[in-house]
Write a structure and sequence with these properties.
heterodimer; A: Tick-borne Encephalitis virus Glycoprotein, domain 1; 20 helices; 50% helix; globular; B: alpha+beta; 2 domains; 5-stranded mixed beta barrel; elongated
């Protein structure tokens, strides 16, 4: 089957390249449907689908003779997570990206219309070819024996998935994110074709696709944040790691693109800007792929992927460079054919100026994030030019600090935007009663909050941001309210309000972050079973009451009970436990316990544990072979190690068995003079880490007065040294857990904001689709500039409170 | 002169200028151990990377401090590291750890503010080293 898979990948590559050629040939043939090219692309898509099916079935049938299946899956994985191993590794995620590109490409082929199909599909075909080329180099169908030639028998079980990845988000987040990535290629294709064939309405065709990218990619990115919050236990959702910044930069570019389209639609401005912003997101995504997948940022990132290898790295690098150069050269050569019809700088009180500032600020944010992410590359370049001493990276606080003023500017823009008029907003209109409401409310609220919370350390910059957020929130909410509650005749359909919903979503996210930064309280108690503890910064008394089951049960939780100080019922916090086998040792992973309250979350996470307490009952020591020590009044002589001969031979050959004991032979004299030999074992079991690796052995003379035992806990055979502990067995061992309890106030705002942004994007997408049906974009025959097309449903967005629904011609844009 | 371009340029200069300032301030150089030791005099934050020596790892729950030793791949140099926080996840399987912090010359220890932990690559294509006896530890 793997041979079939490889053949399918090669065939898909050939088919996609054939489709490119056939579509290009069909460019000469006029109005007929480009049957040959379309057939070749659909064939390529079907082959990609078949490849995905094979990849999936190899995983589901536990074909551990395939290297990818071995490295990322295991027999005991539940079915949904087994399915999710499809994209757990590099090869799988590239295949996922290719799959989505193929699917979107087929949709595009049928919906882009006669003329456009043969213009945009070649670009999609090239993108497919690029991805498939990477897949031929880095194939998911390589056999295990090709990687490990000296190990001819393929493994019985795989290495399995990292337990952190075994949760529902692993099934949802990567597909959503890669769908967003794949959709960037569509806008790129339209932008490229607009630069080659002049068409004044090109942006109208790509607008719904761009909104789709905006919604899906944005939502996918935040899904990753929610996953981190819910699973990892550090209480945050965004770490400014390169793999997080990577999709953010294209998303910011796409947002800027959407704003540029508004200006182009209403008065024909920013034409070249929107061309640039049309190809920017896809190129930025390629750059991000290059940074995060080729391993050059490995030293500086928490997320490490397996290396792609030199050839695949080069393909990505040259692909990205080619796409960038191609787009920039095209823009330079052909851009002047698009003449802007409006001067956005003409009047600082105009809406088009506001949009321009919005684009500038969004792109500054993209530049800041992109440069931060690329700092190791930049500094390495400086080192090579002898302008700097060392390669460096930036720390996460850089992004927060540098993006902070950007966030303030954005909120001001989102707040002022709805009240600006096209061309010019005259002064008297600015001071209209309705306009001052949001400003007044926002500022009043800020003053109020600052006064009440004076002791909560809200510093001036945060106050300004808070004011900006409230202002933007009220301004956009007011537009929505007025538009939906008006008399029926003048009511605007909800699909025209997408931008306002998205703005509200953005302000909610910022408000949530302000709350988190300002009002979080936390405590880090060490809890011992059976003891309660008053938390210091939080009004709860907390105790650890034990595990709900045992370590061998996959459904095992750590159980904690919290009692509020103010009275009221106690509640139980359960932390799902997973046991991980790392090189034969047991490691506990606990998911945080999260309680949703109206003001935010109560977040309880395991920081460390279990640790053995009560040091007086347990004494650790080390001894060399032949040494004698006195510990707790026992005289202990370490005679030698003992390893069964067969095991010794296997160890010497470098192939330790999965389970084997090593014994330490000791001579022990008890305080009352009894001497006896003692043999303590240390068992290594690679498959079962929960086995008692160090069974305790009673010491001679052990009775009710001296109930001591010894255990052999570790060794360094080459140094002839062994670790032991002796324990007073009458004292039960006490395990202590370090827990972090914190409040996460306002975190709900972040998730609501995310949903609102995606919702707003989808609303606008519906609007643009309806618009394209009601007034189809003009026939793209490269005609002369004759003013932009009039639109039937000319609802002027963001015109504020007095927009009328009557069709307006291009001339009069002044409203209110 | 139109006020529009002025506002635009002001915003760009302000935002990018501030960004550049923070960028420079946040740049943390990645240094070999030898050079990192010399940086103690400036007290600046640096990054070092090495392989953690498994038997050297100790976590004191009472003080909440993690201590371990890193070995530099290129030179074999050893550097003790102190991290005032419990073991990060996956620390035990880490083949490489990047520590970000300052070197304390007086105590000859690297004070880490943050650790980036690298797990062994699942697709390394190499077998685990088999030369020499292995050491097993139950910590």
């Amino acid at each position: 089957m793997t041979i079939a898979g490889t053949i399918l990948v090669w065939s898909a590559l050939i088919a996609s390249l054939a489709s490119v050629a056939l579509y290009l040939i069909s460019l000469r043939s006029g109005e007929r449907v480009p049957v040959a090219g379309r057939f070749a692309f659909i064939l390529s898509a079907v082959l990609v689908l078949a490849t995905s099916v094979i990849h999936c079935s190899l995983l589901m049938t536990h074909r551990f003779d395939v290297a990818y299946v071995y490295h990322y899956s295991a027999r005991e994985l539940p079915t949904p997570y087994l399915f999710a191993t499809f994209w757990a590794g590099q090869e799988g995620s590239f295949l996922l990206w290719t799959f989505w590109t193929a699917l979107l490409g087929v949709v595009l082929a049928f919906t882009s219309g006669r003329v456009y199909e043969r213009r945009v599909m070649p670009v999609i075909g090239v993108v497919m070819g690029f991805l498939l080329l990477i897949l031929t180099i880095k194939s998911p169908f390589v056999h295990y024996v090709q990687i490990n030639p000296s190990d001819p028998l393929h493994p019985f079980n795989g290495q399995g998935l990292n337990p952190l990845l075994e949760n529902p988000w692993m099934v949802i987040h990567p597909p959503t994110l890669f769908l967003g990535f794949a959709s960037l290629a569509v806008t790129f294709a339209y932008a490229v074709s607009a630069m080659i064939w002049k068409d004044r309405d090109w942006y109208r065709r790509t607008w719904p696709w761009a909104l789709f990218s905006f919604s899906v990619l944005g939502f996918g990115v935040m899904l990753g944040g929610y996953w981190a919050y819910e699973t990892l236990g550090w209480g945050g959702f965004w770490g400014w790691d390169p793999v997080e910044n990577g999709p953010l930069v294209p998303w910011l570019g796409m947002t800027a693109f959407l704003h540029a389209l508004q200006v182009q639609r209403i008065n024909g401005g920013l034409k070249r800007t929107s061309l640039f912003l049309g190809f920017f997101p896809f190129v930025a995504a390629l750059y991000e792929t290059f940074l995060t997948r080729t391993g050059i940022l490995d030293k500086f990132s928490n997320h490490s992927f397996s290396t792609l290898g030199g050839v695949a790295n080069s393909v990505i690098l040259y692909g990205m460079l080619f796409a960038t150069a191609f787009s920039l050269v095209l823009l330079a050569l052909q851009g002047k054919r698009y003449k802007s019809q409006a001067d956005v700088w003409e009047n600082a009180s105009s809406k088009e100026f506001g949009y321009t500032l919005a684009i500038i600020i969004l792109m500054i944010c993209a530049v800041i994030t992109g440069c931060g992410m690329s700092a190791p590359l930049i500094t390495q370049g400086l080192v090579d030019l002898h302008l700097a001493a060392n390669q460096s990276s930036v720390q996460p606080d850089f992004y927060n600090k540098a993006n902070f003023p950007v966030a303030i500017l954005l909120t001001i823009g989102m707040g002022l935007g709805p009240y600006l008029a096209w061309r010019k907003t005259s002064a008297d209109k600015l001071i209209k009663l309705q306009y001052t409401y949001p400003a007044a409310v926002g500022l009043t609220a800020v003053v109020m909050i600052a006064a009440i919370k004076f002791g909560f350390n809200l510093r001036t910059p945060q106050l300004i941001l808070l004011a900006g957020c409230l202002f933007a929130l009220f301004a956009n909410a007011q537009v929505i309210y007025v538009s939906l509650v008006r008399p029926r005749l003048q009511r605007r359909p909800i699909r025209t309000l997408g931008g306002h919903f998205a703005h509200i979503g953005a302000t909610l996210i910022l408000l949530g972050i302000i709350c988190l930064v300002t009002f979080t309280r936390s405590d880090k108690p060490i809890l011992v079973q059976g003891h309660t503890r008053q938390l210091e910064t939080l009004p709860y008394v907390m105790s650890y009451t034990g595990m709900t089951s045992n370590l061998r049960d996959p459904k095992n939780d750590l159980k904690f009970v919290l009692t509020p100080n103010k009275g009221g019922p106690s509640f139980t916090a359960l932390m799902p436990l997973a046991v991980r086998n790392s090189e034969g040792q047991m490691k506990l992973l606990a998911r945080p316990s999260i309680f949703h309250k109206w003001w935010g979350d109560l977040y309880i996470a395991l920081v460390d544990g279990p640790e053995q307490l009560s040091p007086t009952a347990l004494q650790k020591f080390s001894m060399h072979k032949g040494q004698t020590s006195t510990i707790a009044s026992y005289k202990i002589g370490f005679v030698s190690f003992y390893v069964p001969p067969k095991v010794a031979a296997q160890l010497a050959a470098g192939q330790p068995p999965r389970r084997f004991p090593v014994a330490a032979v000791l001579v022990v004299t008890s305080p009352d003079g009894k001497t006896a030999p003692v043999v303590a074992q240390y068992i290594t079991d690679m498959d079962d880490p929960i086995v008692n690796a160090s069974p305790e052995v009673r010491l001679p003379g052990a009775n009710s007065r001296l109930p001591w035992a010894i255990a052999f806990t570790g060794m360094d055979a080459s140094a002839g040294q062994a670790d032991f502990y002796i324990r007073d067995a009458s004292v039960a061992p006490v395990e202590a857990y370090t827990i972090q309890v914190s409040t996460r106030p306002g975190i709900g705002l972040v998730w609501i904001g995310t949903v609102l942004i995606a919702f707003g994007g989808l609303l606008s997408m519906r609007r643009r689709i309806v618009e394209n049906e009601l007034t189809p974009p003009s026939n793209p025959d490269g005609g002369e500039e004759a003013g932009h097309s009039g639109l039937c449903e000319d609802v002027d967005d963001n015109a504020g409170l007095a927009a009328s629904r009557t069709p307006v011609s291009a001339g009069s844009r002044e409203l209110n | 002169m139109k006020i529009g371009p002025i506002i635009g340029i002001l915003i760009i200069v302000f935002a990018l200028g501030l960004g550049a300032y923070f960028f420079k301030g946040s740049l943390t150089p990645y240094l070999p151990f030898k050079v990192a030791r010399q940086s103690a005099s400036t007290g600046s934050t640096v990054q070092i990377m090495g392989a953690p020596i498994k038997t050297s790892t100790q976590y004191d729950q009472q003080t909440g401090t993690l201590n371990f030793t890193l070995q530099e791949a290129a030179t074999g140099d050893l550097m003790p590291v102190e991290f005032k926080s419990p073991k990060p996840d996956s620390f035990d399987e880490a083949v490489s750890v990047t520590a970000i912090g300052t070197y304390d010359g007086k105590r000859n220890v690297f004070q880490a503010d943050n650790l980036l932990v690298k797990c062994p690559s699942k697709y390394a294509g190499q077998k685990a080293p088999t030369t020499g006896p292995r050491s097993y530890s139950a910590t």
